[in-house]
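ARCHIVE CARD
Drawer: 12
Card no.: 0347
Subject: one protein chain, sequence and derived structure
Cross-reference: see card 0346
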Amino acid sequence: MAQPSRTGAEARRASAQALALTLVAWLAAAVCVVLGGWQWQRGNVVVSEPPATRPVVAVQQVVSAAAGPGSDRALLSRDEVGRRVEVRGTFDPAVDLLVPGRALDGQQGSWVLGVVRLEDGSGVAVVRGWVPEGAPVPDAPAGPVDLLGVLQPPENSDVAPSTTALADGQVPVVSAADLVNRVDYPVANAYVTATEPVAAPASGTGLRAVPPADPGESNRHLDWRNLAYAAQWWVFAAFALVLWRRALRDLRDDRRAAALEAASDPASGPASDPASDPAGAAPAGPRQDRAPHPADGPGGRDVSSTR
């Protein structure tokens, strides 16, 4: 009678395996879901405040030609447009330009453009201010400068007010592609509009500050690489649950097969007793009505009455 105990032990062992598989599978799925959510949060970057409200930093920390083409600071990102920056260096005397056709408060005039050589050896374009048409242009400071301004993206040729040829010392747009041909050092692919007019003390105060064309704003952008990672983690979670369900089904099928095998095996039942089981009694041999007699003839026939 050991078979029922063995069957019960196998059932308990199968239940323990199913419980362990359930715990492991659901724990793995939960971890994958959490990691996917974390990647999703990183993929949805929301700028909660405009760039103009962030702390002032050195311009090299945001965009710099010395950072190299593969650096995050090589190009001005959309999130940094309108960022307030500090510019420390020296104006290059070889670059003193005008950008004509720029209106301010309904009056035509020009931007006064220079290039500041930064401490890292690169340069950045700075709009020192605005002057009306025909007014004299104040000189740039000769020594080191420390000014505040707002970062702007480089201008395209389509913003130029006119396609007519310009005089020497004038440029149609503020573009690093043009400025790098005038200096022997790299120039950042952005420009700064000075918060206050920048001019040599002896040149007077004929400049007016230029408001930034793009003050920057809060925005939201997606990082597709992190979003792909999030999707991968969620796929792993679903895969773990599929494996868990398949493993439980295999355990259930194995238990059913073992139960059917035990039920169809004669050796698993109790031993038969011929005395108590009529169906298990030995079959009867050939029937004999009486014992052989000397008068019986060949074949057992009675020949005593033969004359």
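Annotation on reverse: The helical segments are 3-43, 176-179, 224-264. The longest strand covers residues 84-104.
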